[in-house]
Every structure is written in C-alpha cells, then in structure tokens.
Please model this.
Amino acid sequence: MRKILSIFAAALVAIAVSADPVVLPATLDVNNVSFRSEGMPDFVIEEGQDYAGTYFDMGAHDSSNDTLLYAEWDVTIEPIQYNLSVDVYNTNSWRVQLYVLNQAGDTVKGLRYKGSSGQCGHYAIGAIDMRDLEAGNYKVRAHAATAWSAMKLKDVIFEADYHGVEVALPGTLLPAYAELSANASVTDGAIAFKPSTANSEYATWNVNFAAAGTFNVSIDMTASNGHTYGVALLSADGASQIGAVAEAQSWDTGVKELGAIEVPAAGSYKVKLTNATQWSEAVLNSITFAAPAPAHTYTVAGGNTDLFGTSWDPTNEANDMVLQEDNTYKWEMTEVTLAAGTIEFKVCEDHAWTNCWPAQNYQLAITEAGIYTIQIYYNPNDNNYVGAVATKTGDAQVDPVVSIAGSMNSWNTSADVMTLAEDKQTASLTLNLEAQTYEFKVVMNGSDWRSNAQEFTRENATAAEMTGNLDNMHLVADVAGEYIFTWTFETNTLAITFPTATAISNTEAAKQVEKMIENGQLIIIKNGVKYNAIGTVVK
Model:
C-alpha cells in the first residue's frame, strides 16, 4: 500500500563563514501514517494501486460529525515559521482542516482553509509559527471537513519562512531572508527584479555583525539586460544609511566585487539591495560580505620544541597567529606538558626574520612543571605589543632538559643534551673536542639560556652561579680530548673536567710547548694558548 504526503522545505539559510545552503529538516515518515474512518466503508486505499496522494471519499460521510474522518502523519519540524499550502483535487466544494499535534495527540497549532466550488489545484493556507515550540517530532492531521463530493488531498507543503531572522556576518545573504518591495519576487531561491520604475524595487535583510571593521561586498547577479544595482548598509530600523556601494553593468552576469563597506560597531543592521533601472529582469543570487585578508602573516618562533614543534623557525605555519575580531592576533596551544623554566620567543612577520618582536626575546616564566594552555598575543597597532599568558591546567612530572649550545655545535640547542643523573641532582655531557677556544652557553629546556661570561681554563674549570643570560662563556681547550660538562641543579652551576695533561706524550708535549720573553715576562705557549710562569692564561 502506498501512502504519500509530500512535506517540502524549500528554503535556503545563510550561516556565518559558510555560504553553503542547507535544506531544513522538515521530514515525513511515510511508513507511519494512520487513517481514521469510522463508519466510512467507502474510504479505501487499495493494495498495489499507485496513488499520487491520499484520497478522501466524502460521499458516505456523516455531515453531523466533521471529525470522524482524518489522516495523520508523523513529522519532524524545526522551531521556525512555516508557510503552509495544499494541493487538492475535487469535483465540488470542499474544505480541509489542518492541525499540528504533539506526540501525545494534543493540538498545538491549527489553521482552516475552505476552497471554492468545483475548483482544484494549489492553495496557500497561511503561516504557522513554530518558534514557540521545541524542535522535535510532531503529527500533522488533515480533516476532510465537509460531507460533499469526493476530495483528493495530494500534497501538504511546508516552506520555511525566514522573515525577520538575523544573520551573523561575515557570510553570505541568501534571498530567503529578503523583505521584498512590491516589484520583487523570490523565484527558485533567488530574487527577481522586475521594476516598473527606477528605484521602485528593493530587498532588505536583518543582519548582525559580530565586530566592527571593513567588509568587502560582492554580489552574484543574473541579468538579461543592462542593470544598475547597489548594496547599502542601514541602521537597524532602516531609517538611516551608513554606507553604500554600487556598480553599473550591461548584459552581464556572475559575481562582481562592488567595494568595501565600513561597519562602525558590532550590532544589528539592515542590508539593502537596490536596482536603479527599468530594464529587463535581473536576478540576485546572493550577496557576500567578507573581511579583507590581513596584509601580513604573523608567526610565533621560539626555542621550546615541546611547545612550538620546531626551534626558532619563523616558517612553521603551524605557529601562524589567528586574526581576531579586534584586529589583534592570537596563538594558542592547549594540553602541552612543560618543565619549569623560561620560554623565549618572538613574533615574526611574513615567515621571515626581517621584522620580529620584541627586540629582546619575550620571556615567559613557567614556575612549575605541569600541563599548560599557552596563549600568545600580538597587536601590530600598539607599538607591536607582544604578550603571553601561561595557564596551568594539570600536574605532570617533567624532567628538566639541559644542553650545551655553542660554536662546537653551531649553536644547536638540541645537539648536545646532558644525561640526567639517577638522583636527578646533576646532569653531565662528554664532548670530544679539538684544542682551541670555544664560545658557548647552557640551555635549560630548549629556550632558557644561561651564562655568566665565565672563561673556563684548566686552572679555572668551575663556574659561578648561572641564572641569567649574559655574554657568551669561553672554553679554552688546551689539549684535544674528552671534556666533561657537569650541571648541578641546586646551585645552578657548571663545572668542566679537562682531559689529563699526561695524556700527551713528552715528545708531543715538547713540540706543543714554546717559551718566550714578552714585556720582560716569561710566557709559555702550549697548544696555541699563552700562560705566564704561574700558569695563568694571558690574553
């Protein structure tokens, strides 16, 4: 048995950011229809017959009771306003009454329509406002409310009505939102302009801008002849015009960039489309508002690879900042595990080191190990302001990472990492170095640079406390061999163990040692390093 009711939601809705139309979910469960036909033996749908609709035979109906005969369907309806219409076929006068019921069978909405004698076809019934209902499952009931000749109810049609609905921008305004003048009509999802006089035709939409700013306006038009059209931004009540753009075209179709409209503040407005010609029909397909692309890209580049993924890399697009509604920029990373220490970074323009801020690296202190959300801010309009906030969201046990970065490894913060002792009180690293002088610093957790301008020699191999980022330290390696770097966490000190001098044979030592008198003082040159008579390095 085929039982068909057609419920049609032929409306398009524009949403912020995406311009893709969606069909509203007003749906019919055609397998869940029930008929009531008490005392109605002539009310029959025969098995195997192809019915275009539901046939109500009123010939045997008891006119004293209009409610005996009905058909009912389960539907899912959104809480919006619908325009309701029916397609009917009959041989005499008829009247159909429609109700919307909840699942318990209680009537929540009702509307009656009466047709004329001997007529059939499509009839608009009117609006049913569902905005006071929750979205969900309802029933649609059709009563054949007369005892006259047979009536065939073919279709019950629901069309979504968006009159007065606000649209969040930037996005695309689709014509289903239009409040139309008398000379404009909506056809197949577009607005057709058929002006009888210039400026007699317009369409307006209620819109809501989330932020102030400049928006580029484009329009998609189909025209069969010349036309002049424009888009204006009006106050919320439509009484005053704030800005407008316009363009004249002849025999033209497609998307046209009209120009920019300045929105002075966030809030509600009206957008108005006008057509200033009397020529042949022009059709509006859509109006689009788009914030202009930012002039520059801003990227966070820093030394902590746990946070930034790469070390001091302004080309890493994963660290590009996002333009905010107030024209500032923001970068955020959540659920990142960080050790205690200082995170250093810059904000760089257009993926290069040419323009980066601040001049001295920004230092973000992580006071204790844990799981964090890191937010970094940049305002190009406020003296290139850079700021950052670290919010701890959970606890985590994080072992500190200590490395040596310097001329011995091209200042790579991750090339020479110290090994943490079992008691986690110290960390050490052995480097096999040639005899020469090296510049270097200690790096904590990939970005916290430590130095105190110390010069490490065989006679002075233990450094003082290092808590700041001062000038580079120097290692005067007087012989080739293994140099052991040891960091003590409690005191923040570095010691370097030199290879023993006995590792050099007497013959080799003799070749490498030269004595001379300089300014009346005995100077000993060993492996290119000058010492005085008591073994102190002479610069």
User: Anything to note?
Assistant: The CA atoms of residues 404 and 442 lie 5 Å apart.
